[in-house]
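Reply to thread "Modeling small-molecule complexes from scratch"

Following up on the discussion above, here's a worked example others can learn from. I took a protein sequence and the SMILES for zinc ion and predicted the complex. Inputs first:
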Amino acid sequence: MRILRSNGVALEINDSRLVFDTKPIGKSIQFISHAHLDHARNLSPKNVIMSKETASILKAVGRKGEWTLLKYKEKIRIGDGLEISAKPSGHVLGSAQYIVDADGLRLVYTGDLNIYDSLLHRGAEPVESDILVIESTYGIPYYRFPSREKTYANIVKWVLKTISSGEIPAFKVYSLGKSQEIIRIINTYTDIPVVASSSVSRISEKYNEHGISLEYFSINNDESKEILKQGGCVYVSSFREDLPTDRRVRWAVASGWALRYRYSSYDMAFPLSGHSDYDGLVKYVLESQPKKVYTIYGYAEEFSHNLRRRGINARPISEACQSSLF
Ligand SMILES: [Zn+2]
């Protein structure tokens, strides 16, 4: 096994080339871990493998191609003795970790990873591996998130307080993943109606189609304009915008970066993330029991360094390019 490129993972195994969340190299098979743009940007028109949920989200946002759909736990065989399967990564609808078995060795590519249960998804289960390629977005000890329950409670409290002042609480969050978690929090703990922007509605529809029930009004229907005028509702969007209401709108963000950055132009920032925090990443590595770890995305250098201090053979993937993995 050789790694050919490090912005995403490009692997050469025997005569096959597999690329994960990056551009194909010559004749290769491309795997997409989930539908966030930074992972699906280089989507090629064919020879692509992804989950059916990821495909339905990509189609909903206008992407086209001939894609092979891989179900969780299903296996794809390529050439002689190369097998690839997928397991949920707990990050967003359809997100997958890929498991590559070749010549008695197992490589796991986690993609974006969340090991904690949320109102939308079960946390990712660690997969045992020989070689682990793990994301390291929050790979420094500074990033230790409060429990999800605590953050959920703080979100609900802020929503109730804002509404009781006659104002509208609004969230500016990613249209895939975070938006749906906010809608689900409000649906689960309150009877407050949620109005969602067009892009959030388009993706939330896919969650409903795949069995994760979300109740909201799309901004495009007349009823939602009346709801916004009346107040007593929550608004969810991927960008800040003027709303058709005379009421004051208070904007909040929800992101793991809220632990560090102040978001001073917002009324509130909640440390809610679709990624694992530092402790979650370390837990995954310990349970995966890999012989070698390659870190990718975010704090790749720092996370490797911290793993090495625990006696784990870890390097950022950028240092592994062109070298043999095993
Ligand atoms: Zn992502």
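What I'd highlight from this example: The helical segments are 37-40, 52-60, 148-164, 178-189, 198-209, 222-230, 278-288, 300-309. Residues 148-164 form the longest helix (17 residues). Questions welcome below.
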